[in-house]
Amino acid sequence: MILSRLPLLIGLALALPATSLAAEFTAKELADARALQARILTLDSHLDTPSNFERPDFDIHKDYSGNGISQVDLPRMQRGLLDGGFWVVYTGQGDRQPATLVADRDAGLMRLLAIHTTVAANRDTFELARTAADAARIKAAGKRVVYISMENASPLEQDPTLLSYYHRAGLSMLSITHTKNNGFGDSGTDKAEWNGLSPAGRALVENATRMGIVIDQSHAADAVFDDLVKLLPVPFVLSHTSAKAVYDHPRNIDDARLRQLAAKGGVIQVNAYGGYLIDTHASAERKAAENALEQGLGGWRGMTMASGVELAAGMARLDHEHPVTKATEDDYFQHLEHILNVVGPDHVGIGMDWDGGGGLVGHDDITNLPRITAWLLRKGYTEQQIANIWGGNVLRVMEQVQAHAKAQAGS
To answer: Signal peptide span per the entry (predicted)?
Structure first.
């Protein structure tokens, strides 16, 4: 496992039975939420589920509830009324040596292939989306929506011209970094190297914008945000980020930048990764024990789905041996409400980091998504505002970015 990725923290929510949920909703509130959610388009902007496509025993049609590896599969998408979202080409940040950059290039291409292979093998239930309009059409056809995004542009560092290939293969969204700096820019959780975007990063962002690819600032440093505000002629997004005013973590964003994002027409998709919502008080001993548990099961990439049950049991044991504080729905709703109050419902979305560390006590997979809708209804948001939060806002940014690229190509 790459500890900065912390995929084992999925187990922080999965390992123990749910205690209390944040809000007590009535049966009618939940029924109304489900009915609304069935009508609207429900998308999550950051699904790390493709990491499981490379496991030989993963079957997206199988319900993996209780499995410490998986939070998203078709049965749970159906129960949670998740219509789809952005499936991530993720590559961990290596040491940036030439051989590592080649390995990153190949890893990204293999993950892209895994997404296409999965969609092709399940064409009756999933379909690749390339434009904002595709999502509603795919939902109407009774299928799940698959947009492709890239988290960490490291696979492009060895050969930036590969971006055009990714675009032709359906890439719709691109982030700059992950938890460490790369050759394109600074990470929010690493020491400043470029003071924002590097020259190569600026060129990458400009090329992506010309192709109609949405830029994602999540994980990148505040200085990268500032560069994007000045550089981009179109809005951008934060695909899975929370509020620094609620929990002061370098991975989160402050209110002043939130307002700049909204002024530019951008959208922040609120994250549910516990370590960015609250201080989990995870000790060095806890982290070492998680690493030992994972390595004993073959390493994160080497695990099979069959070992996921043992992973969940092991995490439950660690919860007793090395307790941590776990983020709850209350914590998530505190971030969501703060951001809504700062920028309004036209600039907010949902990107909970499923299969990448996201998850809350009592909300450990996608089956409880209607609870978010129930909370939004209780807060007085209209159906149209909720539809925008659940997908309309991020698709509006995509439409603007693609329209700009088309206009530039025709000028």
So the answer is: 1-22
